[in-house]
Amino acid sequence: MKKILPLFFVIFLWIPVQAQEDDETTDPLTQAARAMNQRRFTEAEKIYASLLLKTPQDVALQQLWVHALINLKRHDEADSMLRRMTDRDTNEGGNYWYRGLNFERQQKDSLAIGFFKLYIAKAGHKNGFNISAWLHAGSGFRRMMHKDGISNRQVEEMVYLFEQYIGLNPTDPYNTELEYFITEVKSRKPSSGRLVWDETN
Predict the structure, then answer these.
(1) 109 pLDDT above the threshold of 80
(2) 161 contacts 181 by C-beta, under 8 angstroms
(3) Which residue in 14, 46, 122, 126 has a CA-CA distance of 20 to 30 Å to 92?
(4) What burial class does residue 136 get, using C-beta atoms within 10 Å of its C-beta: 0-12 exposed, 13-18 middle, 19+ buried?
(5) CATH numbers and ranges of domains, the chain
(6) pLDDT reading at 2 higher than 90
């Protein structure tokens, strides 16, 4: 037993040291991605900001930094950066994705929908397209329906967006609930005026 205990303490002490060494030898982008996954957004933002000092025109890196800002609720900074990015390149779809996400986090659904739709238009035919943009845009209309209501045309657009998402991602377990919602909302679509429905009755 006396021989086992010292060995246990050596292993116990070695583990955090080894973990620290591994972290130090990992490249900064991997460290930042790990920090984002672990919701250590401040740490990730600092890493991305320091990397941007070396390569300020790296669009992918700019988008990663903006994503960290959004998660830190630094929405004005994120939007200011995204405005400059879209001004420089109106065809870069990812910039519209993050603008949509930034407005969605601020509960500005009308603006969020517009930018998610722009993302779909700009990036929908490219590799790496995030099909959840269809879901985000449709969900924006859904939240608007809960609060101030949506027009007949907007109901149809919401249904279209959700149906596109289901078609592109048929294995999502959420689709069953989404299909039920589509059936219900179609039966409630107004011939005139606006549909206000909070889904509680």
Answers:
(1) yes
(2) no
(3) 46
(4) buried
(5) 33-110 (1.25.40), 131-201 (no CATH)
(6) no
Return the structure tokens found at 22: 């591994």
Phi, psi of 124 (to 5 degrees): -60, -20
User: What pLDDT is attached to residue 157?
Assistant: 98
Residue with tokens 């059936």: 183
Using an 8 Å Cβ cutoff, are 138 and 162 in contact? yes
Question: pTM (2 decimals)?
Answer: 0.85
**CB-based contact 78:70 (threshold 8 Å):** yes
Residue listed under structure tokens 């919401």 = 158
